[in-house]
C-alpha cells in the first residue's frame, strides 16, 4: 500500500470556481452555458448536459450534467431502507438543474452576535454563503453531478479520463455535493469529476441497535455512497471516464466515510474504486463513529410517538409513517466532540467482528489491552469500537489493496473556535476546560491520566512561557486528531 502524507493539502478550493454553491457567474461578459449537442445514453435513459467555458484561456470547456439520479427516491416504504436502483426514464433528460439536497437541520446563524461568540468571522461568512443553497430539501435527493472535459465524448474508448468521486464533508447531518463545482479541476487536470448527495442525519444514520438484530442495515448514507459508486461503474464510460481508474476522495466527515468504505466487506474489493484521498479527516478520529446510536434512536422514537420498546422492524415501520418534520424536530442534545447521527456499527457496512465480543481473543491496540471496566468487562466507547473496526484482519487486508493519500492543513478545526480564540489565542484555563470536555466525552476510564498525557504531548516545552497563541495551535490539533489519530 502506498501511503503519501501531505502536510499542506489544497482541498476544497481546488474544486471551487465562481460557480461555487450554484452561484451563477453568467453576466454580460460571460454568456449563458450552451446546452450540449450530444445525447449521452446511460443504462437508465438518455441525458443531455451543457457546456461551461472557464474564464481562463488556459482551460478547455467542460461538459456538465447536474441532478443525475443514481437510485430510486428513498421515500415512503423506502425510508430507512438501503437504496434501490433507479428506474429507467423515457425521452432525453436535460441535466441543467441541481437536485434538491437531502433533508437536514442547518446551523442557526440568525443571531450574528451570539454566533460570533462560538465561531470565527470567516466561518460565519462562509456559512452565510453556503446555507442559502441548502434550503431546497427533499427526501428525493439521491442524485449526482458530473463534470467532464468537453472532448470526452469524442475521445477514443481506450483513452478515457481518470475519475474522481468527491464525498462532501462539513457534517454527518448537513451539507451536499451540489455546492462543490468540479469545472476547473476537470478541465485543468483532465478528469471526470463526480459529486454526490447522500442521506444525512436521522435519515442517513438512524440505528436502533439491539442484540436480537446484530446485523441490520443502518448506515444508509454509506450505502447511498456505495450505490452511487455502482452507478458510476456502470455508466461513467459514456461520459468519457475510465471505470477502471476511479479515485474516491472525501473531506472531513466525508473522509471518514471513505475510510469506512475502504475497510468494509460490503464494498467489492477493487471494483468500485481503486485508490482514495482522505482530506482533513479519518475513520480513526474520535468523532468519526457513534458509539451508542440506540440512545439517540430512542429519543427520536419517543418524540415521534413510536415506542422505543418496539422491535427494530416495527419501530422503523412506525417511523416511516411519521411526517418528516416529526423526526427532524426531535430535541437531541449531543456532547461536544461527537455526533448523534453518523456511522455506527450495524454488522453490515461497519462491523467489529468478534473483537469486542470474546474476552479471550487477546486483542491489543498499540501494545495495550483494550480498555476494561473494573469488573473486567470491555468498555464499549467510541475509541475501542473504532480500533476494533479497523484492526480486524479483514479490514487490514482490505486496506492494503488500495493506494491511499492523507492530507491535512497547517491548522485544522478553526471552525470550532470563536473569533477571539483565533485572533488572540486560548488561555491555559480555557484549554484545560476544552480538553477535559474532550476526554470526558471520548474515554471511559483513567481520565486524569489521559488528560495529563494529552497536555504533555501537545505542549511546546521549548517555549518556557505558554503564550495563548501557542496554546491555540495545540488545542486545535487535539480537536482534529484526538489522542488516537
UniProtKB/TrEMBL annotation:
Signal sequence residues: 1-22
SUPFAM superfamilies tied to this protein: alpha/beta-Hydrolases
UniProt domain Carboxylesterase type B: residue ranges: 37-463
Pfam family, one: COesterase
Record keywords, A-Z: Glycoprotein, Signal
PROSITE patterns tied to this protein: CARBOXYLESTERASE_B_2 (PS00941)
InterPro entries reported for this sequence: AB_hydrolase_fold, CarbesteraseB, Carboxylesterase_B_CS, Neuroligin/BSAL
Keyword Signal attributed: yes
UniProt keyword Plastid present: no
Family from the record: Belongs to the type-B carboxylesterase/lipase family.
Name by which UniProt lists this protein: Carboxylesterase type B domain-containing protein
Species in which this protein is naturally found: Diatraea saccharalis (sugarcane borer)
Amino acid at each position: 500500500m502506498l501511503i503519501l502524507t501531505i502536510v499542506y493539502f489544497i482541498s476544497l478550493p481546488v474544486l471551487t470556481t465562481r460557480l461555487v454553491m450554484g452561484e451563477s457567474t453568467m453576466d454580460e461578459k460571460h454568456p449563458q452555458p450552451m446546452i450540449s449537442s450530444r445525447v449521452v445514453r446511460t443504462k437508465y435513459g438518455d441525458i443531455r448536459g451543457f457546456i461551461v467555458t472557464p474564464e481562463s484561456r488556459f482551460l478547455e470547456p467542460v461538459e456538465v450534467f447536474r441532478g443525475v439520479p443514481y437510485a430510486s427516491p428513498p421515500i415512503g416504504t423506502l425510508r430507512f431502507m438501503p437504496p434501490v436502483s433507479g428506474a429507467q426514464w423515457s425521452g432525453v433528460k436535460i441535466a441543467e438543474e441541481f437536485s434538491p439536497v437531502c433533508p437536514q437541520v442547518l446551523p442557526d446563524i440568525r443571531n450574528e452576535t451570539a454566533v460570533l461568540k462560538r465561531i470565527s468571522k470567516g466561518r460565519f461568512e462562509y456559512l452565510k454563503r453556503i446555507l442559502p443553497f441548502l434550503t431546497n430539501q427533499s427526501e428525493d435527493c439521491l442524485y449526482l453531478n458530473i463534470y467532464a472535459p468537453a472532448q470526452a465524448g469524442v475521445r477514443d474508448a481506450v483513452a478515457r479520463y481518470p475519475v474522481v468521486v468527491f464525498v462532501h464533508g462539513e457534517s454527518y447531518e448537513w451539507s451536499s455535493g451540489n455546492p462543490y463545482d468540479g469545472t476547473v479541476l476537470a478541465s485543468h487536470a483532465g478528469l471526470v469529476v463526480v459529486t454526490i448527495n447522500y442521506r444525512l442525519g436521522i435519515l442517513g444514520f438512524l440505528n436502533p441497535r439491539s442484540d436480537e438484530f446484530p446485523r441490520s442495515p443502518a448506515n444508509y448514507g454509506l450505502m447511498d455512497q456505495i450505490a452511487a459508486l455502482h452507478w458510476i461503474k456502470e455508466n461513467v464510460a459514456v461520459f468519457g471516464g475510465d471505470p477502471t481508474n476511479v479515485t474516491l476522495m472525501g473531506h472531513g466527515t466525508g473522509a471518514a466515510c471513505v475510510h469506512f468504505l475502504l475497510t468494509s466487506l460490503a464494498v467489492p474489493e477493487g471494483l468500485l474504486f481503486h485508490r482514495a484521498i482522505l482530506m482533513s479527516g479519518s475513520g480513526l478520529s474520535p468523532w468519526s463513529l457513534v458509539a451508542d446510536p440506540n440512545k439517540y434512536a430512542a429519543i427520536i422514537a419517543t418524540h415521534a410517538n413510536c415506542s422505543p420498546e418496539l422491535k427494530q422492524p416495527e419501530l422503523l415501520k412506525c417511523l416511516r409513517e411519521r411526517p418528516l418534520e416529526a423526526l427532524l424536530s426531535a430535541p437531541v442534545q449531543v456532547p461536544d466532540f461527537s455526533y448523534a447521527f453518523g456511522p455506527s456499527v450495524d454488522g453490515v457496512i461497519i462491523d467489529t467482528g468478534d473483537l469486542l465480543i470474546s474476552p479471550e481473543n487477546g486483542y491489543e491496540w498499540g501494545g495495550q489491552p483494550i480498555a476494561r471496566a473494573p469488573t473486567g468487562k470491555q468498555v464499549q466507547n467510541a475509541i475501542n469500537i473504532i480500533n476494533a473496526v479497523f484492526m480486524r484482519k479483514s479490514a487490514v487486508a482490505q486496506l492494503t489493496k488500495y493506494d491511499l493519500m492523507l492530507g491535512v492543513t497547517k491548522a485544522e478545526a478553526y471552525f470550532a473556535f470563536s473569533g477571539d480564540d483565533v485572533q488572540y489565542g486560548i488561555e491555559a484555563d480555557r484549554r484545560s476546560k476544552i480538553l477535559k470536555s474532550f476526554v470526558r466525552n471520548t474515554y471511559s476510564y483513567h481520565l486524569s491520566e489521559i488528560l495529563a498525557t494529552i497536555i504533555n504531548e501537545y505542549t511546546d516545552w521549548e517555549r518556557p512561557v505558554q503564550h495563548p497563541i501557542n496554546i491555540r495551535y495545540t488545542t486545535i490539533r487535539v480537536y482534529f486528531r484526538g489522542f488516537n489519530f
